[in-house]
Design goal:
Blueprint: E1 7-9, E2 15-21, H1 37-40, H2 47-57, E3 63-69, H3 79-89, E4 93-98, H4 106-109, E5 117-121, H5 127-134, H6 138-151, E6 156-162, H7 173-180, E7 184-189, H8 194-198, H9 208-224, E8 228-232, H10 245-248, E9 250-254, E10 259-261, E11 274-277, E12 280-283, H11 289-293, H12 302-307, E13 330-333
Parallel strand pairs: 2-3, 2-9, 3-4, 4-5, 5-6, 6-7, 7-8
Antiparallel strand pairs: 1-13, 8-13, 9-10, 10-11, 11-12
Bound molecules: iron/sulfur cluster (2 copies).
């Protein structure tokens, strides 16, 4: 049986996505945590700067979306205020990504009309799988709060970061998501960032064959259960056009220390293209990610070629067997 074809969601000109890390602190210590305090700092964005930076990035002429994340963003006591403020400023959509602990009585302090999506991170269908990666007791807390959020009327998504440690269990998520009332299922590929960049990277990453054998089928099953599945493109088909989001899209990954990146793969290095200083967005000079975006190589994504060479394969003549797409390019299968 052939699988339904996922739609590649191309980069939308005139759209701006703000990934706002409002703190880097977290109550958990996931084995694959992508936060790197050495580069991203340990500060918390003040209430005053939450407002100023949200104003700085909002643009009435563009569809502007904000995703609040961390660390664990609900540890910030001013997150409910920031959500409301973003909506009042005219952001097209407001999302919060949480590890599920929902500190400061988050659900009671945010209106469902102010928050377009609340996304929970869970990396396994059982405590054994999830808690091995995210910590003891996390499955229970996260799923209890997820169900409370659905019962309170929030639109709930779930983010599952696939690695070799949990890929075999991914398909078991679909019936759970359907039973819990989750509307969107984000299947992420493990990135070699933060902790996974420091130790045993090769034990986490998936080969193209492993990825392609599993992910499209699970996404199709989710869609058949009425859940929209979103997953990264990763490997381009022959003839598919490569585009670097750093060149053609507007994505800003903001950190509390004022660094602003356009490419998440660069976040472990001091190559951020921009910084916020004196409440202005300033383009950095010198060797920055911006200069790397302009390099055209047969392998596709240049940062992948620099940092994740194990993703690449070549024929006997040294020609890449496939191009690696931009990590921000997604495929979507709408729930039916
Ligand atoms: S919940 Fe997120 S920020 Fe916290 S430790 Fe896990 S991956 Fe890191
Ligand atoms: S992941 Fe690669 S293609 Fe995408 S923005 Fe970064 S450098 Fe560009």
């Amino acid at each position: 049986m052939s699988l339904p074809q996922a739609k590649t969601v191309g980069f939308k000109r005139g759209e701006r996505n703000i990934f706002f890390h409002i703190l880097t602190a977290c109550n958990l210590s996931c084995r694959h945590c992508y936060i790197n305090p050495k580069e991203q700092g340990t500060e918390t964005v003040s209430r005053e700067n939450l407002e100023k930076w949200l104003k700085l990035f909002q643009d009435d002429r563009k569809e502007t979306n904000v995703i609040f994340l961390g660390g664990e963003p609900t540890m910030h006591p001013d997150l409910p205020h920031a959500v409301r403020f973003a909506k009042e400023l005219g952001y097209s959509s407001v999302t919060v990504d949480t590890n599920g602990f929902l500190f400061h009585d988050f659900l009671a302090n945010v209106k469902t009309s102010d928050l377009d999506f609340l996304s929970f991170s869970l990396d396994g269908p059982t405590p054994e799988i999830n808690d091995m990666l995210r910590g003891d007791g996390v499955f229970q807390t996260c799923t209890t709060n997820l169900r409370s959020a659905v019962a309170s009327g929030f639109n709930v998504s779930l983010i599952y970061t696939v690695s070799r440690y949990n890929i075999d269990h991914l398909h078991k998520m679909v019936p759970l998501l359907a039973a819990w009332g989750v509307k969107r299922f984000f299947i992420q590929v493990i990135g070699i960032r933060g902790k996974t960049a420091i130790s045993d990277a090769d034990t986490w990453q998936l080969t193209p064959a492993e990825w392609l054998a599993k992910i499209p089928g699970v996404a199709a099953d989710a869609a058949a259960h009425g859940i929209t599945a979103i997953f990264p493109k990763v490997y381009l088909e022959p003839g598919e056009k490569f585009e670097c989001a750093g060149r053609v899209a507007e994505n800003y990954f903001i950190f509390p220390n004022g660094r602003v990146y356009q490419c998440p793969l660069c976040e472990d290095y001091p190559v951020n293209g921009f910084r916020i200083a004196e409440n202005r967005l300033i383009a950095n000079t010198g060797i920055t990610e911006t200069r790397l975006f302009s390099l055209d190589i047969p392998e596709g994504c240049v940062i992948n070629k620099l940092l994740q060479t194990e993703n690449l394969s070549y024929d006997a003549a040294g020609k890449p067997l496939y191009k690696i797409s931009c990590c921000l390019l997604k495929q979507e299968l709408k729930g039916r």
